[in-house]
Amino acid sequence: MIHLKNGSEIAKMGLAGKIIAKTMREVSGAMVAGKSSLKDLDAHAERIILAEGGIPSFKGYKGFPAAACIAVNEGVVHGIPTDYVVQEGDIVTLDFGVIWQGWHADSAWTFGVGEIGENARRLMNVTKESLYQGIGKARVGNRVGDISHAVQGYVERNGYSIVRDLVGHGIGQNLHEEPSVPNFGKPKKGPVLRAGTTICIEPMVNEGSHRVMTLDDDWTVVTQDGKLSAHFEHTVAVTSDGPLILTMDE
Ligand code: MG
Ligand code: MG
Predict the structure, then answer these.
(1) Could you tell me if 185 and 145 are in contact, meaning their C-beta atoms sit under 8 angstroms apart?
(2) pTM for the complete prediction?
(3) What's the 140 CA to ligand 2 centre distance in angstroms?
(4) Ordered DSSP codes for 40-94
(5) What's the 169 CA to ligand 1 centre distance in angstroms?
């Protein structure tokens, strides 16, 4: 069942989203090649979230041990922060969830560390744009498949592949709710989007094959072929005035 949210509930999710946006800006800005470990970045994120009055959604979720999921280069999602120190040329995905007064928001962004390769920059740009193509379809009366199809089409036209094994999701008083929001699919299929539907749209885009695998830590998902992956995610409310992004800075 899809739980529709009223205006005040969406506003609370937006406050959770603002905490995420601030955390994203500050943690990405503090990332220094040769200095910052993934554990440092996670600790920094947790400090900001708590100082803003939020609770990290991910910590303890099904036993996840950290406030942030951090994925480097071939990392796709659900990366457990390690002692790895980021290096010039890495691409690093920061993925944060925050609870504010019982309401969740969730967002991810891939950042380059220092100078990155042209292929990495293009992959990031295509992934980010595919997110916005999907958000553009998050309109009353459309169906989830319209979002899925827009994301997939944009990614594949640009020569990359969409991860199939992991998908976006509804969000609200739970981090993950119905509906599932796949990044691949057919237009005019799937649940109808109504005013008050709140979803995370989160394309995970691979440079090579769409295939992924989970490491021995049972969490960190990486590309099977070891090629790069990027991930951009916003929490979005479907409203009668169009899609409202809840995880933006302003
Ligand atoms: Mg998510
Ligand atoms: Mg996320």
Answers:
(1) yes
(2) 0.97
(3) 24
(4) HHHHHHHHHHHHTT-EESSTTGGG--SSEEEEETTEEE-PPP-SPBP-TT-EEEE
(5) 6
Query: 35 CA distance to ligand 1 centroid (A)?
Result: 28
Domain membership flag for residue 234: yes
Query: In angstroms, how far is the first alpha carbon of the chain from the final one?
Result: 31
Domain count, the chain: 1
Residues with CB under 5 A from ligand 1 (ion): 106, 200
Report the DSSP pairing between strands 161-162 and 168-170: unpaired
- With left for phi above 0 and alpha for psi between -120 and 50, is residue 50 left, alpha or beta? alpha
Q: What is the pLDDT along the chain (250 residues), one digit of tens a residue?
A: 999 999 999 999 999 999 999 999 999 999 999 999 999 999 999 999 999 999 999 999 999 999 999 999 999 999 999 999 999 999 999 999 999 999 999 999 999 999 999 999 999 999 999 999 999 999 999 999 999 999 999 999 999 999 999 999 999 999 999 999 999 999 999 999 999 999 999 999 999 999 999 999 999 999 999 999 999 999 999 999 999 999 997 6
The verdict on residue 82 lying in a domain is yes
**Token duo for residue 68:** 């942030």
The secondary structure element, H or E, covering residue 100 is strand 91-100
Domain containing residue 211: CATH number: 3.90.230.10
